[in-house]
């Protein structure tokens, strides 16, 4: 039983590591004529809660006042809404799951007309034991298209923060694993002691009954 508990803990920890989510800001500078990933990540506060989500992307070109709906992703798959992005956008987010936490898209053959503000929306449905809860989360990406690539400070800081977040998350998972291992180990040892005490009392009681039987027989 104790070994099974340890195996279950290790399995849970491994699954958490694989399902780890870290919110990283998107790059904001694209090179004309090349591809570019528009990043959009929204992690659930409680990973153990079941959820499903749909995603919508909107675009406001430089100099325009209103946002235009350009892309949608739901349980049926991706849909390009704006003809300006027809055959130029591909889904680059969460795959094989309706529990979408990464809603990134990839834009092919970026043009200067793609400069502007992009906004992605997560329409998330959280499923609890007795009820469901709907949330909406949005992220902004201010994209600048240039003729030649330049790596800005924001990009460097974003990359550093991503690695710091990953290392911090892994450290937290390791601490949780050690804590749970010790807790389960202590519980296992206590159960063994209780079992030994119960067995000792049973033997003592049986010996007492046997002695009483011998006295009656005499």
Written description of the protein model:
The chain is an alpha+beta fold. A hairpin with a 2-residue loop joins strand 4 and strand 5. The protein starts with a helix and ends with a helix.
Summary, kept brief:
By secondary structure, the protein is α+β, with helices and mostly antiparallel strands. It is built from two helices and nine strands, in the order αβββββββββα. A hairpin with a 2-residue loop joins β4 (68-74) and β5.
List the helices and strands and how they pair.
Elements (H helix, E strand, L loop, with lengths): L1 H17 L10 E3 L4 E3 L11 E12 L6 E7 L2 E4 L8 E3 L13 E3 L8 E12 L4 E15 L6 H65 L1
Helix pairs in contact: 1-2
Keywords:
218 residues, six-stranded mixed β-sheet, alpha+beta, disordered N terminus, elongated, signal
Mean pLDDT: 83
Overall 3D form:
elongated
Distance between the termini: 46 Å
Q: Approximately what portion of the residues adopt beta-strand conformation?
A: 25-35%
Order of helices and strands: HEEEEEEEEEH
Low-confidence stretches: 1-18
Task: List the quaternary state of the chains.
Answer: single chain
Binned, the helix content reads: 25-40%
The class by helix and strand makeup works out as: alpha+beta
How would you characterize the largest beta sheet?
6 strands, mixed
* Tally of separate helices: 2
Strand order across the largest sheet: 1-9-8-3-4-5
């Amino acid at each position: 039983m104790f070994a099974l508990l340890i195996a279950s803990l290790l399995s849970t920890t491994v699954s958490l590591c694989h399902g780890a989510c870290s919110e990283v800001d998107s790059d904001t500078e694209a090179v004309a004529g090349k591809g570019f990933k528009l990043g959009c990540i929204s992690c659930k506060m409680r990973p153990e809660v079941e959820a499903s989500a749909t995603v919508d992307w909107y675009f406001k070109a430089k100099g325009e006042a209103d946002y235009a709906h350009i892309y949608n992703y739901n349980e049926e798959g991706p849909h390009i809404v704006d003809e300006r992005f027809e055959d130029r956008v591909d889904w680059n987010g969460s795959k094989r799951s309706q529990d979408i936490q990464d809603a990134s898209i990839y834009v092919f053959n970026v043009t200067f007309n793609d400069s502007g503000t992009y906004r992605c929306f997560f329409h998330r449905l959280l499923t609890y034991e007795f009820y469901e809860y709907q949330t909406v989360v949005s992220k902004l990406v201010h994209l600048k298209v240039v003729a030649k690539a330049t790596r800005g400070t924001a990009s460097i800081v974003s990359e550093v923060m991503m690695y710091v977040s990953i290392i911090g998350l892994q450290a937290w998972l390791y601490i949780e694993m050690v804590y749970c291992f010790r807790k389960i180990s202590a519980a296992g040892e206590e159960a063994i002691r209780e079992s030994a005490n119960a067995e000792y009392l049973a033997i003592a009681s049986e010996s007492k009954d046997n002695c009483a039987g011998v006295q009656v027989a005499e």
